[in-house]
Write a structure and sequence with these properties.
The chain has about 450 residues and is an alpha/beta fold. Helices cover about 25% and strands about 25% of the residues. It has helices at about 10-15, 20-25, 40-55, 70-85, 105-110, 140-155, 175-180, 210-220, 250-260, 290-295, 305-315; strands spanning about 30-35, 60-65, 90-95, 120, 125-130, 160, 190, 225-230, 230-235, 240-245, 265-270, 335-340, 365-370, 380-385, 385-395, 395-405, 410-415, 420-425, 445-450. The longest helix has 16 residues, at about 70-85. It starts with 8 loop residues before the first helix and ends with a strand. The model is unreliable at about 1-20 (pLDDT under 50). Bound molecules: 2-acetamido-2-deoxy-beta-D-glucopyranose (3 copies). This is Glycoside hydrolase.
Length: about 450
């Protein structure tokens, strides 16, 4: 029997009521953050302040390097900035890069008691990217993680709350078998369920694996952390060239999260430019050594996604189960996004060629428009290449559509009232083209509607 209690809506809405702390801690929302090079504490401050404004409770700091100053300085700056802004941080060890958990322990020991370190049930939270297949020389991965993480820390009097992404354990999602084999975990996080796979065709993202994983986790009395993401486009020499659909992925995952009510949500990601699913700042220092990534991330600001994620976080925390309840803080909140290169492009000048999964991409203008409860007579108008390609009556909550038939040239979305007044509008700054002799870029232009 699952033992966590959920805070009733009224308890969260009423400031003078007693809030059950353990339940309020559940339903926290995090953003996966790649620790990369930064020029100084100002950049850390900017990330922390923006994330806090969106409603995130903490960054999950993906650590790949515990030696070099660029990494250790960034971590220190982030903790300084978090302290100034009453924000929290926890580590997510990247086991695909550093395959030895012992390597991470000095860093974890140094920060786990920091005032800005995120705790759950008074225990320092720690996650991973992968690691379920590593046994560190023990008879099983479970035994390896117990010895090298839990026992090693308990010698120092530290008990972590261990909530890894172990979806590389060998099964499809977490099952009761997983929880009996891996009793070292205190909860689980999924990564891969955030997007459809490249072999799903034009099918949409599914929450079936998340639902099964959450059921199994709860049967083991452990929380489930569900991933929410936008798209995945990677285009790097040698290590990956693929496109996982981003047309309506964000909006569809929001609906799935609200319907499923997981214990925690982690947005993938704040700043991973390599996989294109960043919603925050991509600092120049962090991609300085990768001209490949610069070629598809520079000039592709994604911050408009924050505008629609912020009301989503509020709705999730308030216990909303339907996207109709994702209402904006003001008159509206909206963003639209599109790929400026048609899927049919040959990309003959790009040595990497087209990404796998390119044929799943829809040439479309995608929008997410949040409207208030009392909405009436608002029309969402989508212009492509100077023509209106959709005119959609707005309803309260989340309005999201992928409008096919994008045309070459400029893109625009307008929110128009019944009397013709324009409530808000956003215009592209990058035209849609049919062909390129440069990078075969499937990243999205994301446009603020203001
Ligand atoms: C793991 O890392 C620790 C500390 O960095 C080191 O002493 C140990 O030899 C490493 N183990 C393996 C198997 O590489
Ligand atoms: C937390 O970490 C920051 C950055 O290293 C440091 O300035 C601060 O003193 C630490 N606070 C505590 C309570 O350890
Ligand atoms: C994906 O979702 C969209 C929007 O709900 C829907 O129109 C479309 O038919 C779905 N595609 C598939 C293959 O189910």
């Amino acid at each position: 029997m699952f033992s966590f209690r959920r805070a009733p809506l009224a308890a969260l809405a009423c400031a003078s009521c007693l809030v059950d702390l353990s339940a309020a801690e559940l339903k926290n929302v995090f953003a996966h953050y790649m620790v990369g090079g930064m020029s100084g504490v100002d950049q850390a401050r900017s990330d922390v302040q923006q994330a806090k404004a969106v409603g995130f409770d903490a960054f999950a700091l993906n650590v790949q390097n515990v030696v070099d100053p660029w990494s250790l300085d960034s971590i220190r700056w982030l903790f300084d900035a978090a302290l100034e802004n009453d924000f929290k941080l926890f580590f997510s060890f990247d086991m695909a890069v550093v395959t030895n958990v012992t390597t991470f322990l000095p860093l974890f020991k140094e920060y786990q008691a920091n005032e800005s370190y995120y705790h759950h049930k008074d225990l320092p939270f720690v996650s991973t990217f992968d690691g379920a297949a590593l046994n560190f020389g023990y008879e099983s991965a479970n035994a390896g993680w117990k010895a090298e993480l839990k026992d090693a820390l308990s010698n120092d009097g530290i008990t972590p709350f261990f909530i890894p992404d172990f979806d590389d354990w060998g099964g499809s999602g977490y099952t009761s078998d997983f929880f009996s084999s891996y009793d070292v975990v205190d909860g689980v996080f999924s990564w891969e369920t955030a997007w459809p796979t490249t072999d799903t065709g034009s099918g949409n993202v599914s929450a079936v694996v998340d639902e099964g994983s959450q059921r199994a986790a709860h049967a083991a009395s452990k929380p489930y952390m569900m991933p929410l993401s936008t798209l995945q486009f990677k285009h790097i020499t040698g290590s990956g060239n693929w496109y996982r659909r981003g047309e309506l992925n964000l909006a569809q995952r929001m609906a799935q999260v609200l319907a499923q009510q997981p214990d925690f949500v982690e947005v993938i990601t704040w700043n991973d430019a390599g996989e294109s699913h960043y919603i925050g700042n991509v600092w120049a220092d962090s991609i300085a050594s990768s001209p490949d990534i610069q070629a598809y991330a520079n000039g592709y600001d994604h911050s408009a996604w924050q505008d629609v994620i912020a009301p989503f976080i509020t709705a999730y925390k308030n216990g909303a189960t339907d996207v109709a309840a994702i209402t904006p803080f003001g008159a509206f909140a909206a963003a639209f996004w599109y790929r400026p290169l048609l899927a049919s492009a040959c990309c003959s000048g790009d040595g990497l060629g087209k990404p796998s999964g390119w044929e799943n991409a829809l040439d479309a203008v995608n929008f997410a428009v949040l409207l208030p409860e009392d909405t009436e007579g608002v029309t969402i108008k989508v212009y492509s290449g100077g023509n209106v390609i959709a005119s959609v009556p707005g309803v309260a909550g989340l309005n999201a559509q992928s409008v096919p038939g994008i045309q070459l040239g400029a893109q625009k979305v307008e929110l128009v009232k019944e009397d013709g007044t324009v409530l808000g509008a956003g215009s592209s700054t990058v035209d849609v083209v049919a062909e390129t002799d440069g990078t075969c870029n499937f990243n999205y232009q994301v446009v603020h509607v203001a």
